[in-house]
Protein 1
Amino acid sequence: MSDDDAPVPDMAPAAGLPHGLVQRDGGVFLDLSLAPAQLRAAVGQLFQSGQLLAGLDYPLFLLTLFHAPTPRAAPKGEALLRIAARVAPFPPLRRLLYKQVKLCGDSAEFYFEAMPAQEDGAPPARREFDELVADLWGKGVQYGIDAVTVRAMLDCGKAGRITVARALAPQPGRDARLVEVSQGIYRNDAPRERPDGRLDLLSFKNRFPQVKKHARLLRLVPGAPGVPGYDLAGNALPPPAPLELDLAAVAGAGTAVEHFSDGDFVVATQAGYVNVDAHGKISIENRIVSREGVSSRTTGNLKLRAAYEEYGDVQEQRQLDGSDITIHGDVYGHLHSHGGLILLQRNLVGGTAFNEHGDVRVEGVASGSVLQALNGTVHLQRAESCVIAATRVVIDSASNCEIIADEVVIELAEGCAVAARIIRIGSAGPRKQVEMLVFPLVPDLSALEQKIGESLAKAAQYQQMQLKRQQEIDAIAQLPEVRSYLALAGQLRRGELQLQPAQQLQYDKLAARIAPVLKEVARLRLEVKQSEILHAQMLTLVEQLRQERQATAGQSRCTLGLVDGETTVRAMVAPPGPGKAYERPPKEIKALLRSAAPATQLVFADSMGSLDWTYAPPP
């Protein structure tokens, strides 16, 4: 127990106690103004004088004397810390109970024998923890007594050998090390780990590392000193010194060592790709060009952050993810670009080319493939059995393809299903047993039609209200007194009649009787005027909506220069749902264009001729 929060009125040490120990009514205190070594010497003198500390708070005693890890702070304004209840004698006869101590290197063992009964029949004497501490101190065990285990053994009274004390090994510090602060700056051909923890055997962990200018590549984590330990005698055991590193030794071309508020870093001085030599020096190169091809043997699947140029082929099922992708060989795998241009100088066979923000251009043949440019144009020389979707599609020759876009321009189309808002085909016809289908996408005008209908209905209501109020005004005007008053008032206003005083009195009485009626007429005339204004506004709005409907409809056009074989053109209402129709998955696009599910309107069906059609909605 510790009463260090209790006030200590007197700080003078008791007579006979070593300097550093103070006896008070509240207990025995350590003078914290002394160094730990002085306090340990004072405790040693006390134990050597045949005394001990009764009621010892051993954990606090250990922390205070050895700073392991840090002694507890003393009370405010005090320099004393209570560590025991009192100083008590340790008779030699009692010391005989603690002979069975065995030092074994970094630990001390004690054999607890069963205590014999006393001759007078009294209960056997028991060993005390405070006596064991004092006895072990004199035998060189000044640190590391396991107070919990020892007290439990003393309380149970059983015989047995236990380890009563252990040395504290020093805790090593942290060596200085380099930490990668960019994502994967070293080439690593190990399988890439997926987010779920499984390994992707089709991808290398990091084949072509690339970074941006000013990117932090490596951070120096300085070494940290360790924590000293203590042997059983209380001697400090220093930890090994941590290893240090020099950042300048690992900074190569294209990098520099820079100091920031949060540490020292190796920073890229230019954008490019990371190279690490055999000595661990890192450098940044301007570009990367691969001549090995993309395959399971060379690169595996690639996920890059910048432009990529490949002179070899892209193997089947290989995936290449990046931006500004240029392939000089044939592509049989899958390309995914986040921007820039996908340029294939040869063929795309059975693969995919997907660009989120840019164009796709194939200078060879695209066959059995999927090509999508969500915010760009697909340019093809020749396409066979492909699914093509883009903002704009331009093809020299297409056969047996499903094509959907905002605008499609094809010189020769055979056996294709084409859907777009604007379609221009030079020559169209079937291919073998596959029919030629053209679907001009027309807007869904139902919302505008509904607004027009609602506006017309409101205009009719306002007109009906106007007629009704006018009829009420006419009915009031036919009342005898009203008709007489209005006629008389008109003559007086025009100066055709002069009233005598008696006549004026009669006229004033008539005006007073007619005043409420005239007020009602004024209110009705105001409602008539308001109805006229609202009626005109509704008719103006209807005209605006009709113009908007016409303009929206006129954006859908289809031109066929030459029809060579059975060709069907059907107007298709743009499919509902969020996003553009060409943003759908390839399977949905194919199903949409080859099935009869969408509601269509026949525009043209013939085996010869031409077509120049612009969508005109019904009046």
Protein 2
Amino acid sequence: MVSFLQYLAANPFVLLFLVVGLAVWAGGFTIKGYGLGSVAGAIVVGAGISALAASFGVTFKLDDFAKSLFYYLFMYGVGLRVGPSFLNSLNADAFKYVTLAVISCGLALAIVVFGVRYLDLPTGTAGGILAGSNTMSAAIGSAEQAVTSGMVVPPAGGSAQQVSAMIALSYGITYIWGTVGIVLLCKYLPRWWGLDAKVEARKYEAEHGVSNADDPGLTAFQPYGTRAYRLENTGTAGETIRQFRARYPEYAILNVRRQDELLGADPELVLKLGDIVALGGAAENLTSNMGVIGPEVPGNRVLNIPIDQAEILVTQKDMIGRKLGELQTNDLAGQIQLTRLERAGHPQPIGRDVKLQRRDVLYVTGLRPAVDEAGKILGVIARHNTSTDLVTLSVGMILGFLIGAIQFPAFGASVGLGNAGGLLLSGIVVSSISSRLRYFGNTPNAARNILEDMGLIVFVAIVGVNAGAGLMSEITGDLALKILILGFLACTIPPIVVWIVGYHVFKMNAALLMGATAGARSHSGPAREAAKEADSNVPWLGFPVAYAVSGVLLTVGGYFAMVLAR
């Protein structure tokens, strides 16, 4: 055992990725759906291996440069992810969700700072408790930044390493309830208020035309279709396609065959008796008004129309804020089908009252010309590109470091965003620009996920390894109990206050508020549980804006928790 531990100490990269691999493996274990997750697993595994090595007289120490590098990559990736929704939150419609997120984050920060001061807890506990109780692992990094920047000085006789150990310890103690507590709160708060989440969700669905979560994504039923008819109705013959559409907006003429010639679907094309007309529309409409054209006929040629699938990024100004229901009168209605809507990477219910936001991604299927036209109307068609623009990545990172270097007077000293905050803001700026110039700085989701997942797990693993040796000497039963109680309060009180404000002040639908409460805690797990509890997708509608705002506030909150709790 000693020889193996000494080998790991002499080969830090082997040690690092052993911890990362074990953390991901251990984090995958769950009990009734609950588990540590890979990030918390990295703290536990890293600190455990380091403490084990210390008991054999072997000291593990991983490079601080690597720790900072991976954390900075993570922060830039977070900026890229939350940027679109964060910018979308800067409008009147998002006021309620922004307010709820600010209340949750501000109250959690206040509870932690006051509690650490009142209980006279060691330096470092504030950042760890805020990160763990709110399951915002990124706050560990900003808490560490407060120490490395010199804003928080270790106590007399202490060291920066001991402060880091206390951050890790506090995070580990409070993380479990931080995860389980918010799931239980989001799930059961409606019941405590005497509400039935399913009833509330159905009420919202009926009012706003939101599809039910039980509707399967792939079935034999196709809501839109195309059929071929021979034109025998003299009342329709002689009309242009435009005139026909004006009389029957529920239909779209997709193609016309005259004798052996395919004429397409020019709006000014005049229909004649004997034409074979390819008609598109909703399934129920294709089986009504059967005599409007004539009898249905086999039409393999006229129906041989190219079908396309695409992801359309919403960027056009005149489309922002438009309801999906308003698009039903567009000329393209009946020619394309919206199969999925994503906002900030999260699927959203599709309903007639759902308003489009900048950088929403619409997954559409339909006729190729119609898909191309929809791309022009709504924004741009996102063609898949697996390459990453490393030049823009470099420029974005440099911009982040320059922003982080800006200082301004506060708290009796010069304060700035620091490298981490600067990179977060830089990521938001880059994602904002790319929302208008879609392929400026192309960073595919897979690449961004690597920045986030690998960056955070490696950073936390290094923190755990470096802190592990000192944890055993730092922890006492009394200290652990105080940290646990304070973490319980910081996790439990803010969501309850958010619910009270959302339900009684903003008069929000309970199912919608369940998602907003999860978003205000920047945790997608409770939103999933809320959707299951409500048997509806409605909770996801309240999630994205609050999630983006709280993600930013909690990330930088670790820094301010450390500074204010001094």
Protein 3
Amino acid sequence: QVRELLVVEAARRFNLPVENLRTQDGAVVAPDGQRLGYGELVAGDMLHVQAQPKSKLKNPATYKVMGQPVPRVDIPAKVTGGQAYVQDMRLPGMLHARIVRPPSYDAQLTECDTSAVEKLPGFVKVVRDGNFLAVVAQKEFQAIKAMKALSAAAKWKETPGLPKQDDLLRVLTSLKSDDTTIFQQSDPSAIGQRTIEATYTRPYQSHGSIGPSCAVAQLVGDAMTVWTHTQGVYPDREGIAEMLKVPLASVRLIHVEGSGCYGHNGADDAAADAALIARALPGAPVRVQWMREQEHAWEPFGPAMVTKLKASLDGNGRIVDWNFDVWTNTHSMRPGGAGSMLAAQHMAEPFAVPEPKPLPLPAGGGDRNAIPIYKFPNAHVVHHFIPSMPVRISAMRALGAYHNVFSIESFMNELAELAGADPVEFRLKHLEDKRGRDVIERAAKEFGWQNGQKAPPDRGYGFAFARYKSLAAYCAIASEVEVNRETGRPRLVRAVAAVDSGQVVNPDGLTNQIEGAIMQSMSWTLYEAVTFDDTRITSIDWQTYPILRFDAVPDKIDVHIINRPGLPFLGSGETGQGPAAASIANALANATGKRLRDLPLSRQKIKDAIDA
């Protein structure tokens, strides 16, 4: 619409009919080659008009850029050690800070003798406000050494308060929950003859960011500037202003990418840390870098989940009754005030943690993708929202969709087996959405899927499908998994994905998203789980919180894009995590003959199942 206004203005200046003009490279061009740039054409109140509900769109066949692969400009610095992230920032006169975190959630600082720390080389200042404790030095390693000395001097009183980790299923389902039926469908004429039930669990999981959270802050006059890798500069800004008790206008946040940052990890907390420390050192830029053990122990985790499924088949092997229950916490505690950030929680006058709330459908939070895309005569889906949070949690990529799709698509395979049906044909039998069917058929074809096929010895084939949020991109994934029966070690050999994200803007970017989703989901599904005792988080490094390593990378990942020119763009950034998890789980079941339902599907669990 704006382009049309600019063309009309150009026609007036050229004294030519509108239809004689064309647009190219940010300008309106006349038949004789005269050009007027968009910037030259903007005048007066020409844009102060009522926007219309629909625009006249270009014909996709005329696109010159959209739909073509475009190389990313950020990659060279990221693979050569250049300045790419907030962790790489170095400002003139910058000081370095480290935090001394409490050893556990409810620990109280009872004593801290700083005299020895103050004598260390490069020491600048100890900043303490209640349970918030930090040290500032001239150089980074000086700050690390001072942090270790300060940590040794700090005395804390701890209180046990965490549930038994090996009883998390019972803990979650027994906590007080707000129960909501989010989908109900009834057809009394459809009666099942064979019924099965299954329970699936997901542990708390860490973002596991490769670069621990970091921020740089500087107070100049009354203005606080923070460079941060937060995903929400405006809510984080509001939280920091509230924490510092200053007007919103005096706080400015500048987004800089973070290494391995996605979802709600420790980025917002590091920003608050830096602001609180910088306030004590006016004029100087202060860089705060978390340590690995702090990132693993204190970042907000992806919430644990429990799903219980029950379904019945009729005499024709068709699902006629479907019941799905999911128990989980909120899936976002992003700053909605100071109380969402650690620094504000640990101050002498602490800010209360905001009340957890569920995220509304249709996108949803813990109930994201809980409503199946398949069509069943009878269906009942319940979201059991648990306000109480045993550990610190917030948004992690795909929110509840990862586990809900894992559960639904694993159960679909279990039902297909009960019906004696091929898993791909069984899905198509229950799916009316044509675009969903196209994605399933494309993934199966490119994988070489055949009805009744058998995998080579110690290998298995798996399949899964979902439409992310039930309103974004479609994705189907077929997997081949190898299992070492002596050790239980699984390996994803190859994965073939098909995706429909509407009209494709950059095919390379879309392929990257699906490849990354498969790799990340593989790591979550086979390796990752936060561990804790009754007081402390115990998964504080890469040994106690293992993630996917290079030697486990699949031999091959193929992504096949179904382009839909002229159709709306669909989000694809998190569409692959759920299908990848279920596809791998189904392949493991195919390889071993044993169904695993408790994430992660670790080597030990696989070995125990084989030996059982």
Protein 4
Amino acid sequence: MSELTRLIRKSPFFIVTLLILLKAQLFRITVFSNFSPLGLLIDLMSILLIASLIELIPFRRTRRVLYGLYWLLATLALLGATVYFRYFGSVATYTTLFEVGQLPAVKNSVKSLITPVEGLYFVDLVVMAAVWLFRRGRTRRNTWSYSFEPQRGPFRLPYLAAISLLVVSLLTSVFVLRASAGTANELKRAEQVGFANYQASILWKDVAENEKPAIAMKDIPAAMKAAERSTAITRPGTFSTMSGATPAYFGSEKGKNLIVVQLEATQNFVIGLKVDGQEITPVMNSLAGESFYFPQVFQQIGQGNTSDAEFTSNTSIYPTAAIAMSKGYSDRDLPSLPKLLKAQGYTTMTLHPNEVTFWDRDKLYPALGFDTYYDKPAFTNDHFNNFGASDEELYRVGLEKIQEAADQNKPFYAQFVSLSSHHPFEIPEDKQELKLPESLEGTQLGHYLQAIHYTDKALGTLIQGLKDKGLWDKTVLVLYGDHFGLQPKDNDPEEVSAKLGINYHSQISRFNIPLIVHAPGQEGKQVERTGGQVDILPTVANLLGLSWVEDQFIPFGRDLLNTDRNVIGMRYYLPTGSFYNDDILFVPGTGFDDGTAYSLKTHEKVEDFSQYKSDYEYILEWMKLSDEYVKQLPKRK
């Protein structure tokens, strides 16, 4: 055996570097569907950066332990990022480590995302275990001795060689990061710089942004107006001093109660859908016909998922996508819908049958200004799913609490966060009322339709309860989906389209959520304006006759009943710079020119989207202003 072969086989420096490099390429192929010599070189340099640092440590035992930890942490990080990508469609960052504590509560959802590919990350462990067992019977040597200690004495890189590798790998990584600095698309940037360098770039960006705000709070309103002028979007008077013409429907429901129901994993395609003649959502179908129904509304959540939807609908602020808003900003004095309504004498409450500590809602709800929250202990556990109580139980308890509020002769705002249609959509057999065709039986799509059908039926009990209590005509009811339900790995768009007889698009349909606003004083109307979860607060505020001045409240959404044109941004599940306007969905490449656009009406690819460049520039600036705004909000006392 040559000396070089011996070193490669016996040196922990070479072995660990090679193993992590192979896993980094597996990650590239799985996530980016791409392998290139340049990507291989970039990953090698970032891996060598850490390995050469370890090699400089003079103590052999310490080096051996650190190499083992390096291998283990790299393996777990790449494995976790692969599973994470399957659900979120984005590259996990170091900030997602803050959410590890949430995993036990969603273990069934996580299990469903695991595929045989993940086993490849531990092939080396299996091989080492097999070698250990083989050698144990012959030499009694342990696996570390075999793998990392050469039989003719320990090998270590010369000090000068380790220093040289450290400098070269560091300079290469810095050059790569600087070259990709102009790429807003997180997926593209992660592909360009590699997983490890991407983490470093996110950390550096967070540190830099936290040191000094780019825009002072007092200058944000003027910057928002300038951004709007650039893309011909104007804001109705509701958003500022109420000067000028009164917006349509302003105050038409003034003084009425408000109930907002956030529907778990509910996509808009189920509204009006029939399977073998059966309506999937008969209750919502009927409600949409007698309400303001907005069929072109899209999710805008970030790391916080459902809790981010609660945050955004109540504040009209974009999630930053860097951290769950409930964890990163629940220590702030958040301008919110509950606070606006409390100023008008409303009692406010929120109800959710999960533990209130999940996503730090015990901190988020006070920050939003809710008077009271009701979580898991408030409900009888009927063991509907892994989370506990069913939606029917949620609404049963909610109706009791609503009645108590109504008895005080004060208007109320009650937020319901449903849970029965949570992924993986497996509900009790006695609640599965749809007769599905054989093509849907046992599929995630079939499970999803059953769960949504139950969610819709349970919603009917809330509506009937309001009618029975004489509150229906005194209450504005808002329904919206928090985020998508169907997982892309389990639901090919062409198959979904064929099985359901609809035009299902992997991004447009997936992120399209329903928004229904039932206003007792108004006739039903379908409003085709594109919108997002940031637009819920301004739209509801207009109906209830709420107004404010800019130095007290700055919403980043619009009243969809008084907007001639709208552009909304989406990030995290799509790259930063992605937007929906009234015509297209746009997803950037490294920038605007190499991006991709799809028609919202036909779902077909739009070849010439040059006319929308101002929308792209606008939404980048708009979300940046939203980030600056929320970061500078004062801390709560």
